[in-house]
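User: I'm preparing a small set of examples for a lab meeting where we compare how different chains pack in three dimensions. I only have the primary sequence for this one, and I'd like the structure in token form so I can line it up with the others. Please keep the answer compact; I'll paste it straight into my notes.
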Amino acid sequence: MQRNDGRGPDEIRSIDFELNVAPHASGSVLVSMGQTRVICGVTIEEVVPRWMKEQGVTGGWLTAEYSMLPYSTQTRKPRDAAKGRLDGRSVEIQRLIGRSLRAVIDLEKLGPRTIWVDCDVLQADGGTRTTAITGASLALAIACRKLVREKKLDAPPMQKLLAAVSAGILNGQAVLDLNYEEDKLVSVDFNLVATEDGEFVEVQGSGEEATFSGSQLDEMLGLARKGIAALIGAQRAVLARIMVSPPEV
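Assistant: Understood. Below is the structure token output for the 249-residue chain.
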């Protein structure tokens, strides 16, 4: 099966990470998956949310925010601030990003700090949520190691890398890493978030006015796991290049 961008069914788009795009952040990455580009920045504050103090919760916290810049799509997308509220999709995605990253960080080891992860979509061509998670994982790894270099912690609180990728059923066949045109055409939409040792953080799958079989689910899952392995490999290569040891499994 030849896809509209020339990829095979089991191929991810080209992946690229540009580091330090936001110098004031503790870790920042401009991640590109094909034509989808997301800026992921991590800021660490030496305070915890008020609810943690009120409830006597120890350790730290991690939270995420997600937005699509007005010019990220073909027609201008109004800012949420201009509408006076976040749209439901943005809320869903930023909660997904936060849940995913909290699954791989030891909040007790983090101590009384708050990690803010901001993901801003610069250009959207499908898979913005999965691309944001993949880029945020690398930005978080860099930021956590900065805490150690600054002697604020003895060891990085991030325990594992993680990544996310989409899959779907297109013309009856399972395909990996959907671009925008494919995302409009698939009968099934599937997203997987998983860690570097293959453990699942979140699995999302739904039919688009269609149903799917167990064997199709297995196909998409297999493709997604292959894609995540490739993305983790790309993250590790960046960490090795900047002479930062990757998180230990």
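A couple of notes for your slides: The chain has one domain: 15-241. Residues 15-241 form a domain with the Ribosomal Protein S5; domain 2 fold (CATH 3.30.230.70).

User: Perfect, thanks.
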